[in-house]
Fold these 2 entries.
Entry 1:
Amino acid sequence: MMAQIYDRVALIGLGLIASSMAWAMKRDGLAGEIVGFARSAETRNKAAELGFVDRVANSAAEAVKNADLVVLCVPVGAMGAVAAEIGPHLSQGATVTDVGSVKAAVIDAVGPHLPDHVHFVPAHPLAGTEHSGPEAGFAELYENRWCLLVPVAGTDPTATGRLRRLWEAMGANVDEMGAEHHDLVLGVTSHAPHLIAYTMVGVADDLQRVTDSEVINYSAAGFRDFTRIAASDPTMWRDVFLNNKSATLEILGRFTEELFALQRAIRTGDGDFLHDYFTRTRAIRRGIIEAGQDTAEPNFGRGAKEEDAS
Ligand code: NAP
């Protein structure tokens, strides 16, 4: 059993990310007590029934009382309102963190509501599945995944170091970077790909009206992976795009230019261009496998617990 890192952890939002953190903290005794709060009574009751929290609170303000770590695990668009509610109730010297998929907008929304006596260390675990809610979590979600810490200027390095230890104890590899850089990197690696998957599935859905069930019957080759990504939580992803606007639009602009170049190569029969392009992209896939971030096995029809960096 690993050593306890925080005495009392308050999780605000009790979905996939929070429940996975709770299971991992419980497994290794990383928190003395885990208190949880979610918006609906249904989710609060489910969390209590599943037992990944020691106690469920009736409000976010009540949940953070005497907590030395507060983790905001709500959709990005809800972070500011939650911070406003808990701000006056935070303990002296507590660390407040979040797990939001976007960082600059969350820092802008949350920061102003936090008193000077707390440490704010925004974070983003690059792990997830297309499933959401309190029943979707599992202790191994963060195993060998990255967690990016985005400390704001003037953050106490001791507070950052302690949060780093927690993520490492939950199995993650931890790195630090600035908020703008984070949002651009995630725009490329996660946000734009999700939008493309949503679009492709939308196109197929329109087409399906013409081709009946063929889209579903013959979905194995590539399309099935798109549908898995496009099944991700609509609220979470709406908030990601609305809050990572400029990076997403920048990447989509580049994407459109590349798409036109490929489209032109197909039209003009430029096989060399296509071959060179696909050779370059194949090398990227190899790099990901070599970095231990995926397996080389064919991944169509992935299992339910397949990780997906969001
Ligand atoms: P989730 O499973 O949908 O859970 C969201 C939780 O937030 C639910 O318990 C929900 O409560 C609660 N909630 C929503 N609005 C609230 C409010 N105003 N006050 C209190 N609770 C509220 O979502 P998730 O996948 O865990 O995502 C949580 C955060 O992690 C998001 O910011 C997301 O960007 C980030 N993230 C997600 C992934 C991923 O792949 N899923 C990966 C990395 C980071 P109810 O159930 O009562 O509605």
Entry 2:
Amino acid sequence: MNTFLLEIVTPERIVFSEQVESLSVRGEEGELGILAGHVPLVTPLKVAPISVKSGNTRATLAVHGGFLEVQKDKVILLAEGAERSTDIDVERAKAARERAERRLNSQGNRDLVDHRRAELALQRAVTRINVSSHSKE
Ligand code: ATP
């Protein structure tokens, strides 16, 4: 099967740079599957797990929003944050999930910006927990 270079980059580091056969992401407009030779495009991404396949190996990574850019010869995923499943500290993510849930449930908190921030923190934490559970399958 044909492969393409996938680079996953955050403001902090290069998280992933490998030849892969397919990539599956959750875009703002729905699920998107990419194979070699896909038409060039740019699309915003949700906070969600992504899946990468190469030969018999399938990897799941946590991607915390950003953009996917399909170029002619490679695919760049410019993420606000991203982690490989093996780099995720699941206890930290569970603590972050609890903090975010507490903030969302607190009656006094009517500030929209705080609410949105807590929602995003919850999405990041849940994504990390889900990705981490994949790595133990
Ligand atoms: P926390 O409240 O635990 O810091 P957060 O969602 O606010 O979580 P981010 O601001 O998204 O954290 O990330 C800050 C840095 O910490 C990034 O480099 C990110 O990859 C890393 N990070 C955050 N949570 C985890 C985790 N559970 N396991 C591994 N790395 C993490």
